Write the structure tokens for this entry.
Amino acid sequence: MLVIDIIYMLFIALSLYFTILFLLIFFDQRKELLKDNLPKHWPSLTVLIPIHNKARDIAECIRLIKAADYPKNKLIIIAMDDQSTDNSLNILKKIKGIKIISNAKNMGKALTINKGLKLVKSDLVAVIDGDAFIDKNALKLIVGKIIENDKIGAVTCAITTKGTENFLQRLQDIEYTIIVWVRKLLQSIDSIYVTPGPLALYRTSVLKEIGGFDHKNITEDIEIAWRVMYYGYKVRMALGAKVLVDSHKSFKKWWRQRQRWSMGGIQTLMKYKHTLFKKKYGMLGKFVGPFFLLSIFVSLSGFVVFSYTMGLTLIKILYAFLAPNKMFQYYKDIFMLPSVFLYFGIIIFILSLAYVYFGLHTMNNKKYLSFKRLRIIDLLAYLTIYVTIFPVILLIAMYRLCVGDMSWY
Amino acid sequence: MVLIRKYFLVAALITAIIFILGVIVGVQLDTMKLNTIQDRYKQTELDWYDMQIKSDYYKLYPGITDYCEIMIDSNLEFSDEIYSQGLEIERYEEQSKFLEAVKQDKREYALLKFQFWMNAIELRDSCRADYDIILYFYKDEPNAIEEVKQNAMSNVLFNLKQNRGPKVILVPLPIDLDIESINLVTKQFSIHEVPSIVINEKETISGVLSQTAITQALNKASVSTVA
């Protein structure tokens, strides 16, 4: 057996395991997934909105927060302008009923939130991005979730995308939907590993106890979730709390965002490497860290196998031009002389298809499951091309971390 | 916590079942392929003995019929058989992931091909047969690049065989099975890399050739020009 065959077998085994795990949780919990509780009482809530050049969206963002179904006497909104160079600050000054903080110099998102946190006296604190549009029920549903249990330190929500005009946006739409679904499944094993920026709720006492956001981490929303778990609190998700965010129309911006996510994920993994496989850190040590680590391995090993196979096939095809009659012998052999590796690949693909199907179906994003307007092609492109790009992003992110290149930050 | 543990254990169990079943099916498939390969070896061996006995018989009773004509036909028939079986074995081996053909069988098969090559030369020279003999050197366990090149060369030779039919005898010989007699030949024709071919014991060419290049090389070293 070749080394590449062994890597392939490991890739298959891990992919199989995680796909089966998620499908198993889904089938066991599918009735519970969509249940959200309304709060039995209304704790005081402060909404922190860090803003940097959000002139286009900030007014609508705050209008929606003010319009949210939450007692007005329990809600405080603090908008924090981090030295915007556009018209954001002037727009904020015209909005009534909010507190405004303006940084004297650009501090970055994490430090801006921490600065706002010092002013918070309410029971709960929500952090909302300046370009996120929350649903009317979002605040009450995340609050309903956090007060279910004193050990819940943070609650995240369902983030979906605003536009699906171009191909890349539609692929992101599928991706965001699947992420929401998986995140909800991860709740069943106490392993939600991120409280994303568009909307996340924290107990103020917990956020202060753990020292606020880490400004050294480029994905402070991943790091904070790990730290909440590190301190023994749980992270939950209110699936009915919906938030809309912009997806990227241009490949360049999308690429940068994904690199930032990858780098932040690895940075967080490195920071908490001492928790790996250690029981005393709960699910953070037993699953979240190892899951991240193995996901990196699965991603890279899949990429190695894929590149090796594609590389060899490409060379074979190039050489096959020397003898055109035999060019398709390889493809005939695949079916005439079946190899178990091919069957494993087919099993993984079918399970992935089922995984994505149940995700889209459960999240009610069924347009990609339809043959109308050829949206099913978007789904196939997501499963083949889109997912294949991630290992490349991961590799570049690892390289950039190694050489300390964080130029966009 | 009990529920969480249940998820992990059941997922591990299902994965293990699918994985073990996959491996069992894989081993089963490989076993079937290896059995086919062994059958092919056995069949070729039998056909070779049959041809040799036939040759001895005609030598014993030379007046019965035209020895050369019959032996050349038998030789060409055997050549086609050995070549097509070689291709089939190669394809079966490529698709086997868990089990490998027994080395000893491979060595026996290689020796048989070697014997056949010598027989083909002897017949060509003694009976003035007008076929060309191409010795094709390959590795039984090539690295990735060698494998790609071998595949390509094998395809080129396949096309050549299709075009020229009985005018060409192709004898593939593995150079990495540690067989003394084959080592002698590789030394004699200065074979240092795979794929390499030797046309009519005259011209040695290494690397992958195009269809046109091999046709030209064959025309140059063909028995008609040799003669």
Q: What stands out?
A: Chain B has a mean pLDDT of 83. The beta strands of chain B are 132-138, 168-174, 196-199, 203-206. The helical segments of chain B are 2-60, 67-95, 103-127, 144-164, 180-188, 211-221, 223-226.
